[in-house]
Design goal:
Strand content: 35-45%
Oligomer: single chain
Strand order of the largest sheet: 1-5-2-4-3
Number of strands: 5
Distance between the termini: 10 Å
Helix content: under 10%
């Protein structure tokens, strides 16, 4: 995961989403394209809420995070957290 504090959306790539055991049927449709992602507008597949735990054992936080699901190849990360 890439932590990008200038990102206004939390992104998870489709292959990582499916590897978590999630199904495409659990993705809610989203009609808003993402701008500035690769220089072009990218149309997401949709969005899905996932529980995310961050931090080390003594300082952890678990929150429900809405991820925008994107199907793209040639990227260095499984997702981007803004």
């Amino acid at each position: 995961m890439l932590i990008n504090t200038s990102s206004s959306v939390d992104i998870l790539f489709l292959d990582a989403y499916l590897k978590l055991g999630m199904s495409r049927t659990e993705i809610r449709l989203v009609a808003t394209p993402l701008a500035g992602f690769t220089g072009d507008a990218v149309c997401p597949l949709g969005a899905s809420n996932l529980m995310v735990t961050m931090g080390s054992h003594s300082r952890q936080a678990t929150r429900m995070v809405e991820f925008t699901i994107v199907d793209m190849a040639d990227r260095a990360y499984n997702g981007i957290i803004g």
